[in-house]
């Protein structure tokens, strides 16, 4: 039996030992899904606090329940450690480490590089490695393949196997989760794709194999670039509608009645999260090495990045109309998470809105039921969420709905507030004909 056949057999029988490198929003749910499917899973992450929490059966990711972690830890199906040497015993390793941007806007590959360098110490014949982190096309072949295989004299596709499978999880979503969101898989060779597909099919309902790692890398960037550009388009539509005196939200609802050829996107205060604002920039960065300028990405990025500034300029106008200035006014931000009903503030436009309001001299507070504390890494400010929401609404000169969390009672907020600027149409019909509410 060849190395490939033997590994596929063990993966299908779930006798193969597997590890997940990086147990964050992506890695922890993935580890749980594989362990619940019957694999022996080891999570490896340098964050001691996270590993301690898991050892106690506690989850730090809202989509993963404490009970699920506790049950798997007790049964021995899942272990979590900061010790990378466990990788020497592994047959299958999935890499789920962060891929942020540097302050310059270029990809920060340091986490992928450090995880790969750790793994390179233990890579061996009969191992399959899958990179899940979103990255520029070519990363798996150009960066991982030399460090993990070539430098060790291992023949990829024969001695060991390497593939890319983009993570598509949408935190907070209940209908499509890790287990039932189809997974794209592309190997460095055909055999690599086959082995990795056989592994993931043991836990994920649908695995869609493409011919190369690059096709898989690019498919993720298409998905998120598609979203970023369409959000840029509706953000610009909102700016145009305001100048035309047309209600952008009514326009979008009307267009969305078309049963084909239109997909609804909504404007907002800017892009947030770990994916949509960042991933397309990995592609445009890579294209620069071909002297190619990714124009759609640049334009959408410019429009989206400018939205917090646009929100603040609309606030200035709205306050002016009410005979007030932003300087010295009490402004309450409602919701700072980058999207509703989650606890993630990464890249949230709320941080920019707050920073800009502070620069204009506003006295800013915020409320978010999911995020008790925020800080701005570069500007150096920090603040705690107000605890008494309605008292803060009453005391403020203006409230800005930045994140439309479901649990807010928008009717009560409008009732108590002096003035509300709604960047998400969270107030919908409630704000029709209300003098107190201005929508984006
Ligand atoms: N969060 C999402 O919604 C989402 C969705 C799709 C894709 N992704 C992509 O998945 C990847 C991971 O994102 P995330 O949100 O899970 O990040 P995260 O920050 O929540 O988790 C990453 C984990 O990796 C750990 N880590 C850092 N360096 C490591 C190393 N050298 N070895 C092992 N572990 C290491 C960190 O301690 C952390 O726990 C990123 O590329 C991201 O773009 C994220």
Report on this model:
The structure is a single chain. By secondary structure, this protein is an alpha/beta fold. It folds into two domains: 209 residues, NAD(P)-binding Rossmann-like Domain (Rossmann fold, 3-Layer(aba) Sandwich), CATH 3.40.50; 214 residues, NAD(P)-binding Rossmann-like Domain (Rossmann fold, 3-Layer(aba) Sandwich). The chain is built from 14 helices and 15 strands. Helix 1 runs parallel beside helix 7 and helix 11 packs across helix 12. The chain is elongated, with a radius of gyration of 24 Å. The model has no long low-confidence stretch (mean pLDDT 96).
Largest sheet: 8 strands, mixed
| Gross geometry | elongated
Content of β-strand: 5-15%
Supply the number of helical segments.
14
Total strand segments? 15
Structural class: alpha/beta
Unique bound compounds? nicotinamide-adenine-dinucleotide
What's the SSE pattern? HEHEHHEEHEHEEHEHHHHEHEEEHEHEE
CATH class of the largest domain: Alpha Beta
Q: What distance separates the N and C termini? A: 64 Å
CATH architecture classification of the largest domain: 3-Layer(aba) Sandwich
Oligomeric state of the chains present here? single chain
Mean pLDDT across residues: 96
The name CATH uses for the topology of the largest domain is: Rossmann fold
């Amino acid at each position: 039996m060849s190395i490939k056949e033997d590994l596929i057999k063990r993966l299908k029988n779930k006798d193969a030992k597997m590890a997940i490198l990086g147990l964050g929003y992506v890695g922890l749910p993935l580890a749980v899904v594989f362990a619940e499917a019957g694999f022996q899973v080891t999570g490896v992450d340098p964050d001691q606090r996270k590993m301690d929490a898991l050892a106690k059966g506690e989850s730090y990711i809202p989509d993963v329940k404490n009970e699920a972690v506790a049950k798997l830890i007790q049964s021995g199906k899942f272990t979590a450690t900061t010790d990378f040497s466990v990788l020497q015993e592994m047959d299958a390793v999935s890499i789920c480490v962060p891929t942020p941007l540097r302050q310059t806007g270029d990809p920060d590959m340091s986490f992928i590089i450090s995880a790969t360098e750790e793994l390179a110490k233990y890579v061996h014949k009969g191992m399959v490695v899958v990179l899940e982190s979103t990255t520029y096309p070519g990363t798996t072949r150009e960066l991982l393949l030399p460090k993990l295989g070539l430098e060790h004299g291992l023949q990829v596709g024969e001695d060991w196997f390497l593939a890319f499978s983009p993570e598509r999880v949408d935190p907070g979503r209940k209908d499509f989760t890790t287990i039932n969101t189809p997974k794209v898989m592309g190997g460095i060779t055909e055999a690599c794709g086959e082995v990795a597909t056989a592994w993931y099919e043991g836990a994920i309902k649908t695995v869609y194999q493409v011919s190369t790692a690059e096709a898989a890398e690019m498919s993720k960037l298409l998905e998120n670039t598609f979203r970023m550009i369409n959000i840029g388009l509706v953000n610009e539509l909102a700016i145009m509608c305001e100048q035309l005196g047309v209600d952008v939200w009514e326009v979008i609802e009307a267009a969305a009645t078309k049963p084909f050829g239109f997909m609804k996107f909504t404007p907002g205060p800017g892009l947030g999260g770990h994916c949509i604002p960042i991933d397309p920039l990995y592609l445009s960065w890579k294209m620069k090495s071909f002297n190619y300028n990714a124009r759609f990405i640049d334009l959408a990025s410019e429009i989206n990045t400018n939205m917090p500034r646009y929100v603040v300029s609309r606030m200035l106008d709205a306050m002016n109309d009410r005979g007030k200035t932003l300087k010295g006014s009490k402004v309450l931000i409602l919701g700072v998470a980058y999207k509703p009903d989650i606890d993630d503030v990464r890249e949230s436009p709320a941080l920019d809105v707050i920073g800009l309001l502070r620069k204009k001299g506003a006295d800013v507070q915020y409320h978010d039921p999911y995020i008790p504390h925020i800080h701005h890494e570069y500007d150096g400010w920090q603040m705690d969420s107000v605890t008494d929401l309605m008292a803060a609404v009453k005391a403020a000169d203006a409230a800005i709905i930045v994140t439309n969390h479901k649990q807010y009672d928008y009717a009560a907020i409008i009732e108590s507030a002096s003035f509300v600027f709604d960047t998400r149409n969270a107030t919908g019909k409630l704000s029709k004909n209300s003098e107190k509410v201005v929508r984006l």
